[in-house]
Amino acid sequence: MKFIKINVGISFFVLMNFVNAQNEIAVEVKTNINSFECLINHTALKIKTSENKTIITIPVAAFKCPKKMIEKDLQSIFEVTNYPNITLNIHTYNLKKQLISTEIQIKSIKKNYLIDVNQMKSKLIGEQIISLTDFGITPPTKMMGTVKVKDQVKISFKFNEEILKNLN
């Protein structure tokens, strides 16, 4: 059984790694105090490709954290009962300009991004900064405001070129 990491450093950043075969997605969330690591089984990541798009579905409830309380907090932030998945919908890949056009859906909100990518061996590597508030998420606080999650989140990825081969 393989797991994917969600690392959070001492400056309290959560690094969620979603892996399927040769594909990885990392979401880095920073706070001002602590760190933790959560894992997701790589088989939970679902990738669907068609002629004109690639859809990557990430089930939030599949994350396993060191403490059940952290899992519950993560699921609460993303309102897993109503919105069980985070979705990445990759529309186009421009090999010449090294760009992908993607839509990220968190909860019921979709945002489009044009992301620079680098090619390394047979991988496309990139990252995008998003704001939780853009997706209707108020960055949470804990312990009467002592621990504060920052609004900006970095999504980093490594994709096997195979999942992008059907894109324009």
- What's the total count of β strands? 13
Query: What coarse outline follows from CA principal-axis ratios?
Result: elongated
Q: Determine the N-to-C terminus distance.
A: 35 Å
Structural class determined from secondary elements: mainly beta
State mean pLDDT (0 to 100 scale): 77
Over all CA atoms, what is the radius of gyration? 16 Å
Biggest sheet details:
13 strands, antiparallel
Helix content: under 10%
Sequence of secondary-structure elements: EEEEEEEHEEEEEE
Model regions low in confidence, pLDDT < 50 over at least 5 residues: 1-20
Strand content is over 45%
The number of helices is 1
Please describe the structure with a list of short key phrases separated by commas or semicolons.
13-stranded antiparallel β-sheet; elongated; mainly beta; 6% helix
In short:
By secondary structure, this protein is mainly beta.
Architecture overview:
It is a single chain. The chain is mostly beta strands and 168 residues long. It has a domain at 3-48 and 60-86 and 118-161. It contains one helix and 13 strands; from the N terminus they run E-E-E-E-E-E-E-H-E-E-E-E-E-E. The protein has one helix spanning 68-77; strands spanning 3-7, 13-20, 23-31, 37-41, 46-49, 54-59, 63-64, 85-94, 99-106, 109-120, 123-131, 141-142, 147-160. Strands 1, 2, 3, 4, 5, 6, 7, 8, 9, 10, 11, 12 and 13 form a 13-stranded antiparallel β-sheet that branches. Strand 12 and strand 13 (147-160) form a beta hairpin. The protein is elongated.
Question: What does the secondary structure layout of this molecule look like, with pairings?
Answer:
Elements: E1 3-7, E2 13-20, E3 23-31, E4 37-41, E5 46-49, E6 54-59, E7 63-64, H1 68-77, E8 85-94, E9 99-106, E10 109-120, E11 123-131, E12 141-142, E13 147-160
Antiparallel strand pairs: 1-2, 1-4, 2-3, 3-13, 4-7, 5-6, 6-8, 8-9, 9-10, 10-11, 11-13, 12-13
